[in-house]
Design brief:
Chain lengths: 86, 151
């Protein structure tokens, strides 16, 4: 399943945590018409680079799906940051 | 005879592995689910496929002569992303791979990216099951501990 939400948490020196929920599904909805409009150009670029466009599309879809559950955390005494894709 | 068994027997014939090791490897390839002995109880526990690649970094550094507290980095990457990444590498045109190989060889990394193929993908990811890299460095005022493993 493609990721729907990304959560970014930032912690400052005063231990205040700022959490930002990014609705990725809205971004996908916005990007979808753009991808359709750009598809002829992407197709031509794939042909120039001698890449099978369908295979490329499949791999991109797999990467998008695999992003779910990715987690990155960096913690320091003075600050901290975490990024989680749900 | 399947491919794994043939490779193991070839390694045995070449003297790269002992007969005991060959027997264990053949048994491991034949078993649908591999089992690892539990060090504490001696009982066998099923070995599941790892889902994530983890990277943990624990660093204690002094910046401009003052201790700034420990820095901890915790990265969890799904193995599926790794699989998709290898598939993406399979789409790179041959000319680009040649250039990348040449650039890596210039930097002293004798690695052939053309060897990464979709058919070897599962084997590659399977090998990561037992991957565990521990780096413990103490240099000057810095203490760095890095752990890379699958879970």
């Amino acid at each position: 399943m493609i990721p729907f939400v990304a959560v970014v948490s930032l912690r400052n020196r005063e231990s205040r945590t700022f959490r930002l929920w990014i609705p990725l599904f809205l971004i996908w909805l916005l990007l979808l018409p753009l991808a359709v409009l750009l598809s002829p150009f992407i197709f031509v670029a794939c042909l120039i680079c001698r890449v099978n466009p369908l295979q490329g599309l499949a791999v991109m879809w797999q990467i998008l799906n695999a992003l779910t559950d990715t987690n990155i955390e960096v913690e320091q005494r003075s600050a901290g940051m975490s990024f989680h894709i749900l | 005879m399947n491919e794994h068994r043939r490779q193991i027997l070839q390694m045995l014939a070449e003297g790269k592995i002992s007969a005991d090791e060959a027997e264990r490897l053949i048994a491991a390839t034949e078993a649908p689910v591999s089992f690892t002995p539990n060090a504490d109880s001696g009982a066998a526990i099923p070995k599941t496929r790892p889902k994530y690649l983890r990277v943990l970094v624990d660093a204690e550094e002094t910046r401009d002569g003052r201790y700034d507290g420990p820095t901890k980095v915790n990265v969890r990457v799904p193995m599926q992303l790794l699989r998709a990444g290898v598939r993406l590498a399979g789409l790179i045109p041959a000319q680009a791979l040649d250039r990348a190989n040449h650039a890596m060889q210039e930097k002293g990394v004798p690695f052939d990216l053309k060897q990464i193929k979709a058919e070897n993908l599962e084997e590659l990811v399977e090998q990561l099951n037992d991957l565990s890299v521990d780096v413990d460095q103490k240099e000057g005022g810095a203490k760095v501990k890095v752990r890379v493993f699958c879970e």
